[in-house]
Amino acid sequence: MNILTGRSRTGKSAVLDIVEFCLGRDEVTISAGTVSDHAAWYYLIVEFKNERVLLCRPNPSTASTNRAMIRFGDLELTAPDFQDLEVNADTDVLRDVLSERLEIERFTVEPDQRSLRTSFQVSVRQALFMCFQSQDEIASRNLLFHRQADRNVKEALRESLPYFLGVSTPEQANIRRQLVSARRTLRGIENRLQAAEADLDVREVRVAQLIRSAIGLGLLPETAADSAAPARNLLSQALSFTYPRNGFVEDETVSRRGDLVEEGRALRGRLREIDDQIVLLKRLQNDQSSSDVEYGFQHDRLRALDLLLPKKNGTDNATSTCPLCDQDLHTPDESISDLRHLLATLEERLSASRGATARREATIERIGGVRKEIVAAIGDNVIDLDALSQQEAQIAAGRERGEQIAFLQGRVSQELERGVDFTDDLGALRDSARLARGHVARLEHAYEDDNPASALEGAMDSLSELMTDYAQALELEGSQHTVRLDPSELTVVIQRPGGRIPLARMGSAANLIGYHLVAHLALHHWFVTHDRPVPRFVMFDQPTQAFFPEKVVDAADHEDADWTAVRQLFTLMRDVVASLDGDLQVIVCDHANLSDPWFADSVIDNWRNGVALIPTDWLTADEPNGPRSE
């Protein structure tokens, strides 16, 4: 037992953080201030059977770092010289070195299948969680282990504790993995066998229906219905049938339809234009005919002038003779001449109109001929579209048949995967299930012979005896009942007739601290006596805090402290260490300084009267003298 005693604010609590940092923690928890401002390096010497390992870490300027220095030596290895310090490794290497020398086996922790956490290899990282109790943790009612407040740390502790207790081994884990795999395989075979047996009654009918459908779609010949060939061969033949694709023909018909539709649209547009021209010409013809009738009527009226010509002068130019009495007129009648001129004009117009009418009729007849050609072309276009529609219908029918064939072949493929050789398939499945059940039974027998759950319960019973004895030695409340460690919730419980009392419901700081000591001392007693790969030390920071007034400066100055309870705590630690014959190191940083000789023999340093973690001359020097934090 090594006790570091001293006044407050001398750096005692920083020792735990420094030790953990030197053992490979990446996160820096050393308090900023005097220590971190005046130390350039931190170092730790760990001793194994025939070897010492020097672990050095440079004082970082960041919140985390993985830089480290490792040096190996014999049992005479001591602190390094400052000028010899240099980074030659990282924390991964450091943890691997410690795990190897602790002889931690390659053990993979497989989280519960319902958990989202990934598997991990057990290493010194998890073991160290059981080697520290900081000032805040040792008096906590909710935390039993170091850094347990971190959910990942708590899960890692819960899952790796059975290994460190020795109740779960790599061989057991391997058997468990094999058992899980074998059960999964057996479940799959049994599911297939059950489905095959349930399917047996209807499979023959289903296969026959598939064969008939294949014959109907032309995948098999008509003679297949009466064939003696095995059903599997017929279905395989249907599955190998290849239906020709009509992708090019379909693309061609789509293009042809577009051309015909566009052609029909153009022809109908041209027909409308010709019909408009014919209507216009006929309208002009009708208007001309009406004019000709009017002109003819006027012409016939004017022709009556021929009756009024003088008898003695039958010329049309006789304008000075009365046409009635044939006597000479004193004044010539010029209106007769004008009317004759108008008649001539009308005759000219009538003649011209007859020519235009003939030309229009010829034009109408010619355009009518063109119209007939367009109408005939439209008829041909409609015929072509009808033919194309019939072709498309045939293609659609072929496509539908292709889809039916594809659907049937999918059912055939599924049936072939199920297996259609009923007797052979069921026999093979039953044989596989029988072999799988035998394999599972052998693995279950091997697993039950060394069941980790039963072994863990046995370990908890043994630990419970130690914990109860330790609790009674400290006269803790509830120690008259059974005291147990709960490996699932990672807490201490008192098992009494009225039920379980967990650590969270225990009163007084003295009880909380006492049960923390009881649990960790019992665990390390188990680790030592069962030769488990856990570092052989445990650090307690301020375990006597519950027995002194608040803001204590030096416990040695307080006469009103409960020195009897304090002495009981250190006596228990002394006795546990003595019972293990030097195989466990208990390190205590505390204010207490008992006068008992055995206590004085355990004190490795007394940080009082100016003595502290950081020497006084470091504080007065311009620069730090070097790494003296141990």
Provide a descriptive summary of the structure in words.
With 630 residues, the chain is α/β, with parallel strands linked by helices. It contains 15 helices and 14 strands. Strands 8-12-13-1-14 form a five-stranded parallel β-sheet, sandwiched between helices. Strands 2-3-4-5 form a four-stranded antiparallel β-sheet. Helix 6 crosses helix 9.
Largest sheet: 5 strands, parallel
Portion in helices: 40-55%
Beta-strand portion reads 5-15%
Low-confidence residue ranges: 624-630
- Overall number of strands: 14
> Which secondary-structure class do the elements indicate?
alpha/beta
Order of helices and strands: EHHEEEEHEEHEHHHHHHHEEEHEHEHEH
- Helix run count: 15
Strand order of the largest sheet: 8-12-13-1-14
Q: Tell me the radius of gyration.
A: 58 Å
Mean pLDDT: 82
* Quaternary organisation of the protein chains: single chain
Given the C-alpha coordinates, what overall shape results? elongated
Q: What is the end-to-end distance?
A: 17 Å
Summarize it.
The chain is an alpha/beta fold and 630 residues long. It is 54% helix and 10% strand.
Name a few traits of the molecule.
10% strand; 630 residues; disordered C terminus; four-stranded antiparallel β-sheet; alpha/beta; elongated; five-stranded parallel β-sheet; 54% helix; 15 helices
